[in-house]
Amino acid sequence: MTRANLLVIYTARIEECRAFYASLGLDFHVEQHGGGPPHYAATLDDGLVVELYPASGCGETGALRLGLEVDALPGSPPGRQVLRDPDGRAVEVRVRG
């Protein structure tokens, strides 16, 4: 069996991205490994770790499409919708209902 266990998103808009993904239910905390930069990390129920890193020094990543399933999203009916994070990445959100 193979499953994803880590997703790192590099961004120049780290606070805006943290707020966006937190609004989808990700519970971030600050981490720092060794001499690396402080960044945000959230662990999903299935063990997938989502990290937001500052893009400084490594450049921004290219296009990326994410998919998340959530129990509820304020102001959104059940079903599928595509949102854009602050960097313009497509985030497909499936609201259970």
Description of the molecule:
The protein is mainly beta. 10% of the residues lie in helices and 39% in strands. The chain contains one helix and seven strands, in the order βαββββββ. It has one helix spanning 14-23; strands at residues 6-11, 29-31, 39-43, 49-54, 65-70, 79-84, 90-95. The chain has a four-stranded mixed β-sheet with strand order 1-4-3-2, with helices on one face. The chain is globular. The relative contact order is 0.24.
Keywords:
97 residues, single chain, 3-stranded mixed beta sheet, 4-stranded mixed beta sheet
Produce the secondary structure layout.
Blueprint: E1 6-11, H1 14-23, E2 29-31, E3 39-43, E4 49-54, E5 65-70, E6 79-84, E7 90-95
Radius of gyration: 14 Å
User: Which strand-content bin applies to the residues?
Assistant: 35-45%
Oligomeric grouping of the chains? single chain
User: How would the global form be characterised?
Assistant: globular
- N-to-C order of helices and strands: EHEEEEEE
Biggest pleated sheet? 4 strands, mixed
Distance between the termini: 29 Å
- The largest beta-sheet arranges its strands as 1-4-3-2
Number of DSSP strand runs? 7
Mean pLDDT: 89
Spans with pLDDT under 50 lasting ≥5 residues? none
Structural category: mainly beta
Q: Helix amount, in percent? A: 10-25%
Count of helices?
Answer: 1
